[in-house]
Amino acid sequence: MASIHSLGFPRIGHKRELKKALESFWSREIDEKALQSHAAQLRERHWRIQQTCGLDQVPVGDFSLYDHMLDMSCTLGAIPPRYEFSGDQVGLDTFFAMARGSSTQPAMEMTKWFDTNYHFIVPEFHAGMDFHLASDRIFTQVKEAHALGLKAKPVLVGPITYLWLGKEKDLQAEARHETQHHHDDSACHGHAAPAGNACFDRLTLLPKVLPVYAEILARLAELDVEWIQMDEPALVLDLPQHWIQALDTAYRTLSQSKAPKVLLATYFESVADHAKRLKALPVAGLHLDLRRAPQQLDEFLPEYPADKVLSLGVVDGRNVWRTDLDAALALVQPAHRQLGHRLWVAPSCSLLHTPVDLSQETELDAELKSWLAFSVQKLDEVAILGRALDRGVESVATELASARAAVASRHGSPRIHNPAVAQRLKDLGQDDGRRNNPFPVREAAQRARFKLPAFPTTSIGSFPQTPEIRKARLQNRKGELSGTDYQKAMEAEIALVVREQERLGIDVPVHGEPERNDMVEYFGEQLAGFAFTRHGWVQSYGSRYVKPPLIFGDVSRPAPMTVAWSTYAQSLTKRPMKGMLTGPVTILQWSFVRDDQPRERTALQIALAIRDEVKDLIDAGIGIIQIDEPAYREGLPLKRKDWDLYLHWASRAFRISAQVAPDDVQIHTHMCYSEFNDILPAIAAMDADVITIETSRSQMELLDAFATFNYPNEIGPGVYDIHSPRVPGVEEMVGLLEKAVSVVPAERLWINPDCGLKTRKWAEVTPALENMVEAARQVRARH
Ligand code: GLN
Ligand code: ZN
Question: Which keywords are on file for this protein (predicted)?
């Protein structure tokens, strides 16, 4: 019998029940007992779904009230001292203080889980710290599953991945309340490290953390657990050699204790480079992601050890498309012939990254729906594959035929293929999207046209999304506010935003983006080739979920998307109104993307659609256009060897969207993250006339990289942190600007906030921008 299993199931619930329960708990409407009971109900429901799909064992511990890495930190007792944890069990107060901050302490840092849009809480390590078992959560949940008559397979983040994803901290520096970045300790792993970081090697903590893992395993063995799943996705990254070697130590140690069988799970990329080591590891099984890296099977199958199970992930846990079951079968059949019952079949990774259940989508048209599979449907697919292996393909002939029909319908559908788009791509040929003239020529033309003062002031695009704006949008969607009235309400908002910027004296105003629900969804809704679900939520972090658009077909732009709003805004002022678009890479990155063509091709299609919009904005008289690419960096592949290829097409896609701008049209881009150093050449290759970036939280130190690299175009380093309600003073901003002037030629500098202002209140925005304009005045007087 080929076993079927799953690496994890979404936690959020069909109707986002977890979000509701958490938010009620945080606002004290329900107590801890009620929250825990909601959570237990969700777990039970999710286990039952998986049981019904025919899974032999259900994952336990994949559920989390916030994040599974945070759960792991609590289980291992890795609680930063500032949360003043004492006792033997981490309580919910401490747990949520770490996740979200408390009245006295900020939250722990959060970052993206590999190349997903899920964020985890980054473990903090300090030299000499101790670990101890500080949460019974996994045991409690195993008992819960057993009580329901289910076979539990606990899931833990493995020790190598856990340590790799954490950060070293210097406690003493933290205690001195140093908030400034300092040079001497910024060399950890070759990138800038914020305050309080120390350079000891966190791998030295392995011998301390292993006994706790061993204890957990022993206790799980006492609970009669047969299998546990150790997630080690870090193995797909380019880990330093001594980290890879530590794998042997770690799993040898763990195998010595009285422990359940360990399935070591890898996903998101290939681990082919470590095939030999992994096959020799004292674990009872390995899981491979064959969706992302099917070819790695060739490295594992030959002489696969007789004492090990091999679990193959052939159903995509990262996307929403129905599986080509024939192809999946063809992939697993040789392994099945060789391994028999030692072959397991599963989704490629945890289903955390796909929506819960397609059957809820009652508003999607039947054809499109027949192409999709969400978590529940993916488990059904896994079950069909399991049956095909066990009882022969005839036993599931109907299911296979239906999958085949869906795949064929999707591939042949005229809704997917737009010959005009294909022709445009073809005509593009190898055109690399360069503008007519190099930057110095364009800069001169733009200076002559706009006659902006030195250190021009601008903003990143959005202004406060007030409750009134959101209410109008909701009413409009419900049909309670007519299209005309909605438009009037948004125009009134734009007028207010423009008037305010005139009053403040902002040199390059924006319209404020009131009409946008979200910077990707707004465009997706107007582009052909996109679809939207009603319930396709996936967890981004904690109780924050996102509902990514679905790119199912060739992308084109049937009609202008922003021109009316931008020209209206321009009609209200003599200053150059900055048009505002989202870039091709960001739209791609924040959507579910079609899997029947390379990402590059989809990105180029979006780029051409954005280019149409750029052209129309220019024809309507808009002279400055910003194309936001905040997701440019997160599109980077997990393996460095793949970076160049990605950066090549990503920068090209951006250039293609901007290419139609004549010399005197100024193209801006915006990015907001703190790691630029390693991709600066590719950022320069985008060749935007102006780039605005987040820098205030790092005290402008990020600019050093731009200066060292000799970044050739204009640049607007953010002078204040929009993530905080704090209004920075004039002197503070002048101080930051002086730092900027010391590294970047003054004539290339712009003055702007770190990012868009939509999450802020007017009461914070007005004084902050007033101070920013005053700071600009003072800096101009000095230089
Ligand atoms: N123009 C967008 C805004 O101002 C940019 C948002 C972003 O960088 N994420 O909101
Ligand atoms: Zn931003």
Answer: Methyltransferase, Transferase
